[in-house]
Amino acid sequence: MKWSLLRNRNFVLFLVRESFSLSGTIFLNISLALYSLALTGSATLFASILSLGIIPHLVLGPLAGVVVDRMNKRTLILLLESGKGICLFSFFLFSQMAPVESGWIYFCVLFFATCDVFASPAYVTILPTIVNADELSDANALDTTVVETVRVLAPFLGTVVYSYYGLSTVFLVHAVLCTVSALVTSRMAIAIPPKTGVSSTILQDMKMGFQFFTKDRRILSLVANGVLTHLFLFPFVLLGFPFLIKQVFNGSDLDFGMVESLQTAGSLCSIAGVVFLQKRYRLSINIGIGIIGMLVFVFPLLLLADSGFSSFLMQHPTLMVLYFGTVSFLLFFAFGTYGVFFRTFYQQTIGVAMLGRFVSVMGMLFAMGRFAGFHLYGRIFDASPLLHAILLLGMGMILKLLMHIPFLVDEKKRRQCDKAENSRSL
Question: CA–CA separation, 38 vs 379, rounded Å?
Answer without folding.
Answer: 18
